[in-house]
Amino acid sequence: MSHGNPPPSPQHPDYLLPWQSSERTPPDRPPSPAAPPEPAPGRHGDLRRLRTAYRLLRRIAALTALGYFVVFLLLSGFAKELLDTPLFGGLNIGLVLGLCQLPVTVLALVVYERTARRTVDPLAARIRRAGAAR
């Protein structure tokens, strides 16, 4: 059993993630001197767009669910009279707002999933195909 050199640590600049390859071209095809070098996937504009889309997606989903909860907490702390206002039967505004937390959270998840499928997943698939074509 040969121990050789251990792989570089994740903090090392030469570290490759499991889906990355250190090989630029397949071994059966030599590099073409006339073709200009393609940019590395890490510097590609699609990757930057993917990061931006994913960041925006996370922020919107988090602000929707957490924002509703924070508004509910602030109202329950500072506007007790408003929340005690009866609506119908034995329900008041506070109970209705509390019961609406679950549908708002589910709505945030649905919007997150729908937006991810429309914007983030196609970008990720395009980057994946570009990496596989190399």
From TrEMBL:
The chain crosses the membrane at residues 56-79, 91-112. Residues 1-45 are annotated as: Disordered. Pfam families: DUF485. Residues 1-11, 28-40 have a biased composition (Pro residues). Keywords: Membrane, Transmembrane, Transmembrane helix. The keyword Transmembrane helix applies. This is DUF485 domain-containing protein.
